UniProtKB/TrEMBL annotation, chain A:
It holds the Pfam family SpoIIE. GO terms for molecular function: phosphatase activity. This is Sigma-B regulation protein RsbU (Phosphoserine phosphatase). The keyword Cell cycle does not apply. Keywords: Hydrolase. The keyword Hydrolase applies. Transmembrane segments: none annotated. It comes from the Bacteria. InterPro entries: Bact_Sigma-Reg (IPR052016), KaiA/RbsU_helical_domain_sf (IPR017944), PPM-type-like_dom_sf (IPR036457), PPM-type_phosphatase-like_dom (IPR001932), PSer_Pase_RsbU_N (IPR014787).
Automatic annotation (TrEMBL), chain B:
One of its GO terms (molecular function) is kinase activity. InterPro entries: HATPase_C_sf, HATPase_dom. Residues 34-137 form the Histidine kinase/HSP90-like ATPase domain. This is Serine/threonine-protein kinase RsbT. SMART domains: HATPase_c. Keywords: Kinase, Transferase.
């Protein structure tokens, strides 16, 4: 520190002398470069004033007394900036620390999500989940049992960031501990609701859509807990239906029960599950209509499911100027023709 | 031998007197103008805290010496004492960004950064003692 100060002192005197002699733009450019170096070396504002005083006293030994004193006065005035500067430095270090911690937490959160989508005979599955910031409040789940039956869930933890992520870990472990209900969406949501109601703060809620798919007979059973409705694409009629399920948000009432719905999935049909980050995509003209989403899906429906969801995401991201305001999750499960 | 002066603080004049005493001693010890300004600013902040929150207290300013194998080190020590309300949560007031007076970077964390050593003791209902030292390099 002392070293860098004396080095700076010499440099400052040199560029100041050059400037006073030539008085040109080049000299001022050196001053600008010097100010960058000063910041790099973490020299605070009052020290810069002191650099100036020392240089001036050396260059003009016969300066009027008042002029010298006025610099001392300036130095005192700069003390406040010095304090603010040091606080800024320490806050910046702290922010970096926090960011590192969040990065670790975010990569840990990734391990809660399925590492890969298991291959299921006759099904084409596409999944995309993108957090708005580092931690996500969206959760999805995809398991295949020994009979090839699939249990899948999409959930949105109301709230964002770290608290939502903490809550997600609980949901994941609770879901893993009910293997026998994997194929009974209503019963599974009832169990989950009890866990959430008992263990999560009163101001935290979770919406979820849970479904089970039996690829041997192509039956899809599903239940919902206040979750954003999805879509069901009917291939024969080339039409989209709302895929909604009545049910109270998880964590509100202890004894909620959830209706179970059923669809017979025909070749070419597909199921679309989404989080509200998809439908609440906001543009300058307000929220987009659900119809715009089905239009986008229709536009890309000839593509494999994974490419389909990626294309829809890209278009919606573009609509929002590549700034996500909410966590985004889109899942498409298609029965192959 | 230590030079010591004590200044009562219960008006803004007291703050100015404490600054003056600190600057004089800092100059005498041989601190440069930047460090003089730092010591004075630290005294000013501590005295203002007394004036604003405890109403009455004192600032003691003294020279101190520390002996090493390589020689002696000289410094200035500031002690701010009051019998005010005390600080309930010291950790909180030592945190950056926490300030009741709205200053940027000022307050106790600012004092700590301006000086080399810093120590605080406070008992609610009894008062606060803060010591801060700046060593001559």
């Amino acid at each position: 520190m002392a070293d860098s100060y004396s080095l700076m002192q010499e440099q400052y005197r040199k560029i100041l002398v050059t400037y006073l002699k030539e008085k040109n733009e080049q000299g001022l450019y050196y001053a600008q470069q010097f100010s960058k170096k000063v910041l790099e070396n973490q020299i605070s504002p009052e020290e810069v004033v002191s650099l100036h005083i020392e240089a001036i006293e050396e260059l003009f030994p016969y300066m009027p007394e008042g002029a010298v004193d006025s610099f001392e006065f300036l130095l005192e005035v700069m003390m406040g900036y010095g304090l603010a500067y040091r606080e800024h430095q320490s806050l910046r270090d702290k922010q970096r620390e926090l960011e590192n911690e969040i990065n670790v937490a975010a990569s840990m959160q990734q391990t809660f999500l399925p590492k890969e989508i298991p291959f299921v005979q006759d099904l084409d599955v596409g999944v995309l989940s993108v957090p708005a910031s580092k931690m996500s409040g969206d959760y999805y789940h995809f398991v295949k049992d020994e009979n090839g039956c699939v249990g899948l869930a999409i959930a949105d933890i109301i709230g964002k960031g770290v608290p939502a992520a903490l809550c997600m870990s609980m949901i994941k472990y609770a879901m893993d501990s009910y293997p026998e209900q994997r194929l009974q969406p209503g019963a599974l949501l009832e169990n989950l609701n009890r866990v959430v109601e008992q263990n999560v703060a009163a101001n935290m809620f979770i919406t979820m859509m849970y479904g089970s798919y039996d690829p041997r007979v192509h039956h899809f059973y599903y239940s919902g807990a206040g979750h954003e409705p999805g879509f069901y694409y009917n291939y024969a009629e080339d039409s989209f239906d709302e895929l909604s399920a009545k049910g109270v948000v998880l964590g509100i009432r202890r004894d909620s029960s959830f209706l179970e719905y059923h669809k017979k999935v025909e070749p070419g049909d597909f199921i679309v599950l989404l989080s509200d980050g998809v439908t609440e995509c906001r543009t300058d003209d307000g929220f987009i209509e659900r119809e715009e989403i089905t239009n986008l899906i229709r536009q890309y429906k000839h593509l494999p499911a994974q490419q389909l969801v990626e294309n829809v995401f890209y278009q919606l991201e573009k609509l929002q100027g590549f700034q996500l305001r909410d966590d985004f999750t889109l899942i498409i499960i298609r029965r192959e023709v | 031998m230590s030079v010591q002066s004590s200044v009562e603080v219960h008006t803004e004049w007291g703050i100015v007197s404490a600054r003056q005493a600190g600057r004089n001693l800092a100059k005498e010890i041989g601190f440069g103008s930047v460090d003089q300004a730092r010591v004075t600013t630290a005294i000013s902040e501590l005295a203002r805290n007394i004036y604003l929150y405890a109403e009455k207290g004192e600032i003691i300013i003294e020279t101190i010496e520390q002996y090493h194998s390589s020689g002696a080190k000289k410094g200035i020590k500031i002690t701010a004492k009051d019998r005010g309300p005390g600080i309930k949560n010291i950790r909180e007031v030592m945190e950056d960004g926490f300030t009741t007076s709205g200053g940027l970077g000022a307050g106790l964390p600012g004092v700590k950064r301006l000086m080399d050593d810093f120590d605080i003791d406070s008992v609610v209902g009894e008062g606060t003692v803060i010591t801060a030292v700046k060593w001559l390099r």
